[in-house]
Specification:
The chain is globular and about 60 Å long. It has 11 helices and 2 strands; from the N terminus they run H-H-H-H-H-H-H-H-E-E-H-H-H. It has a two-stranded antiparallel sheet with strand order 1-2. Strand 1 (about 175) and strand 2 form a beta hairpin. By secondary structure, the protein is mainly α. The protein has helices at about 5-25, 30-50, 60-80, 90-100, 100-105, 110-130, 130-135, 145-170, 185-205, 215-245, 260-280; strands spanning about 175, 180-185.
Length: about 280
């Protein structure tokens, strides 16, 4: 068996298991919270390893990871109504510690350490934590709604599939060649149109439910996910190019690391939250 075929088989098996685990976790609120807390921790840990390979940068991976996971769980507790705002106080104390500690560590470039420590929280912990706002933002306080957070990933997968197929067939005009030379405008438009169709289908299938979104709102959500999911992918590509690495890690055979798998969602999830909460104001 050739190496290329082995890589394809490994990539296929990993992809199927990845989708199955992610979809299954949304069946129960507890499993969703636990899995995404784990994802948050693994992604921050991976991020810390990458930036610590640079000269003059040394962030505290362990405390940064623990802080990010705690913030995710604190957000889950607050959104479910099981905790009050005081649950965030330990997180704030940890952030203050991470900043003040640089006074005593005698690092060659403490400003870089501060910057990348805070980036791990702003770029990873905060966006992933906002999935709790989608999961528990409808209905009564603490009532779980699996459809909204799951739909974000469905839209991202549909967009990736459509963009790859259309881009492979007719893609000619590069979307952002400086950062990601493989992406094309044709592929992006094709993926976006496919997502709009998927969003309309979801809106039609759930139209009889009392707390369901209308078809136009679903299509708007799909468009938001497409735009910001693509931007999230480009942001991570720029990050990897700056570091000079092809993949962020190898935890997922054939798919790279955690950042590679969740780069799009880091922008798409908070953008979806902003979109839905903005609509709720009118």
């Amino acid at each position: 068996m050739t190496e290329k075929k082995q890589n394809f088989i490994a990539r296929t098996i990993t992809g199927v298991l990845f989708v199955a685990i992610l979809v299954t976790c949304f069946l129960r609120a507890q499993s969703m919270i636990l899995l995404f807390a784990l994802i948050t921790g693994l992604t921050i840990w991976e991020f810390g390893r990458l930036v610590n390979e640079w000269d003059d940068i040394q962030i505290n991976r362990f405390i940064s990871t623990v802080a990010g996971v705690y913030f995710f769980l604190a957000m889950a507790g607050y959104c479910t109504g099981m905790a009050t705002l005081t649950v965030f106080i330990p997180y704030l104390i940890t952030i203050i510690y991470l900043i003040i500690s640089e006074l005593f560590l005698k690092a060659p470039n403490p400003v870089n350490n501060w910057a990348y420590t805070m980036l791990s929280q702003m770029y990873i912990a905060l966006p992933l934590s906002t999935i709790n706002l989608l999961a528990f933002q409808t209905g009564g306080e603490g009532q779980y709604n699996a459809l909204l957070p799951l739909s974000i990933f469905v839209f991202l997968w549909v967009n990736d599939t459509g963009a790859y197929c259309v881009g492979s067939l007719i893609g000619k005009h590069k979307l952002f060649p400086r950062v990601s030379p493989g992406k094309t405008w044709e592929g992006s438009v094709g993926g976006g149109l496919l997502v709009l169709v998927a969003a309309a289908v979801i809106g039609w299938l759930t139209s009889g439910e009392s707390d369901s979104l209308s078809i136009p709102v679903w299509m708007g959500l799909g468009l938001v996910v497409v735009v910001f999911g693509t931007l999230g992918d480009l942001v991570e590509s720029m990050f990897k190019r700056t570091l000079g690495v092809k993949d962020s890690g190898n935890i997922l055979p054939g798919h790279g690391g955690m950042l590679d798998r969740f780069d799009s969602s880091l922008m798409a999830i908070p953008a979806a939250v902003v979109y839905l909460f903005t609509l709720s104001l009118f």
